[in-house]
Amino acid sequence: xxxxxxxxxxxxxxxxxxxxxxxxxxxxxxxxxxxxxxxxxxxxxxxxxxxxxxxxxxxxxxxxxxxxxxxxxxxxxxxxxxxxxxxxxxxxxxxxxxxxxxxxxxxxxxxxxxxxxxxxxxxxxxxxxxxxxxxxxxxxxxxxxxxxxxxxxxxxxxxxxxxxxxxxxxxxxxxxxxxxxxxxxxxxxxxxxxxxxxxxxxxxxxxxxxxxxxxxxxxxxxxxxxxxxxxxxxxxxxxxxxxxxxxxxxxxxxxxxxxxxxxxxxxxxxxxxxxxxxxxxxxxx
Amino acid sequence: xxxxxxxxxxxxxxxxxxxxxxxxxxxxxxxxxxxxxxxxxxxxxxxxxxxxxxxxxxxxxxxxxxxxxxxxxxxxxxxxxxxxxxxxxxxxxxxxxxxxxxxxxxxxxxxxxxxxxxxxxxxxxxxxxxxxxxxxxxxxxxxxxxxxxxxxxxxxxxxxxxxxxxxxxxxxxxxxxxxxxxxxxxxxxxxxxxxxxxxxxxxxxxxxxxxxxxxxxxxxxxxxxxxxxxxxxxxxxxxxxxxxxxxxxxxxxxxxxxxxxxxxxxxxxxxxxxxxxxxxxxxxxxxxxxxxxxxxxxxxxxxxxxxxxxxxxxxxxxxxxxxxxxxxxxxxxxxxxxxxxxxxxxxxxxxxxxxxxxxxxxxxxxxxxxxx
Lengths: 285, 372
Prior knowledge:
The structure holds two protein chains of two kinds.
Chain A: H1 9-17, H2 25-43, H3 46-53, E1 55-57, E2 67-68, H4 71-78, H5 81-113, H6 118-126, H7 133-146, H8 151-176, H9 181-188, H10 193-221, H11 225-231, H12 238-247, H13 252-281
Antiparallel strand pairs in A: 1-2
Helix pairs in contact in A: 3-13, 4-13, 5-8, 5-10, 7-8, 7-11, 8-10, 8-11, 9-10, 10-13, 12-13
Chain B: E1 5-12, E2 22-29, E3 34-38, H1 45-53, E4 60-65, E5 68-69, E6 80-83, H2 95-99, H3 101-105, H4 110-123, H5 139-152, E7 157-161, H6 169-186, E8 189-194, H7 197-203, E9 206-211, E10 214-220, H8 221-226, H9 231-236, E11 241-248, E12 251-254, E13 257-260, E14 270-276, E15 282-284, E16 291-301, E17 304-311, E18 314-321, E19 331-335, E20 342-344, H10 357-370
Parallel strand pairs in B: 3-8, 3-9, 6-7, 7-8
Antiparallel strand pairs in B: 1-2, 1-4, 4-5, 9-10, 11-12, 11-14, 12-13, 14-20, 15-19, 16-17, 16-19, 17-18
Helix pairs in contact in B: 4-5
């Protein structure tokens, strides 16, 4: 799920030189088999999805669809796929925009300032992982209604809390390995506090920031329960459309269109992050 | 790009500690000169450097660079560069952009900053590595880049905090040569922290010796070795010989006999401890000239050996080459050149604990009038 960064060049070299990590003949075959199995495991479910995408009619016992067409796409559009996509994107980006800086601040506090009751605070930040969203959303729904909060606002508020453990943890790990000496060095070279932030601090944290932001985006993008309960069904996002389509019968083609749509944004983000990281590390093809 | 640094009565205390890390340091480093700050671990060397840099805020005292009091000036505006033990090259920039960093944050256009950085890479003889990633370089190369990066900021003062102590001896020697070359080309004012006496001598013309947050002595290299102001300084500089006795009429009388003192050492008559470096003693066979002594221990030390010899009831230490055939019990003769002798009015004690702040304060006053 997270963006996996290639290990720094030195440790990769170290790993190949170290006998413990050297490839063994039997292990090499095993590894290829494993790669093959994993590929099938990950890609096989996507195959019917892709076929259904363009299937006009696909009934048992046909191995392939009997008729091809774009009817499913039109049906999805008629169901409001485009505005739902926009709302989902809005929720995900808003959750990302709230939870990433908050996670950054929390991670800084934990890593550098050791606040009083750090253990308790840490448990509090991570509590949403243990609390079922269903329970949280039910109680808050009433409260938000009484406060006349707009649904979008309430949804982002709750989801940001659910994304906070991921962003905090990711950035806390990054701060654990962060070398404060770089900042002293930058200041001695004439960089003001803001320049240190923009030219040293953020670039050094960029990979972790991207990982944290991606996780927060996913929390917002894939949410169903909170959007349904807090939004009260007024805010229809892609997961809500997918769920309602899946609940009915004969919607397989439209369902596959919606699902593929749901996979795309995270995939695009992941690719973007990977390309950025490769360029940053100066990996030459 | 060099300025005179004046430090006056600098006191720095870390929060939660009682004893100040710096207990009133006064020091002057002339423009274009190099002073090595020497001292044991925990003596306050790095704190002194960080206080000058502005990375620590002193409780009292002044730091003046080129006539400007630095107290109200933020670290980034002080015109001071710092090279520390770890090169700390920015991993997200390549070598050239690391060196161009200071120019870039000043707002110099990228192309111009890089052209300037390339010149400084040439100074440290790494002109062809500009496009490499910082992490691809060896430790010695990284430290050279760190030096170039610090110089490219055109500092009035360059602070070096044990910059070469992580390098192997061969590399360290070549870095000393490089530093000499940099000084010849750019003549920056240098304040170098080191715990290595040999490095201090190789790089600097003056040594400031710190102990327990106090400045014990600031003097030219030869002077601090042969004319220490206290037994503590003598011991910290590696001096091993202390002979109690009495000064009378320009001569020191002790177990070693009556030795004529050089003119600058023959102070007031009275009790005095005679000191001289173990390196200055010439050891010869029993038929040679000098004071008769018996070898009581032999300890190898690199290319030479340290002999412990006994003259009457007095133990002395002397360096001898491996070629001299000696073992425990061998009778030898010692010659001590008159110019190597020095007398301190202190009584030798088993351990010289840190001087009281007052005593050191006086010593500083004396230093300021004597040397600065």
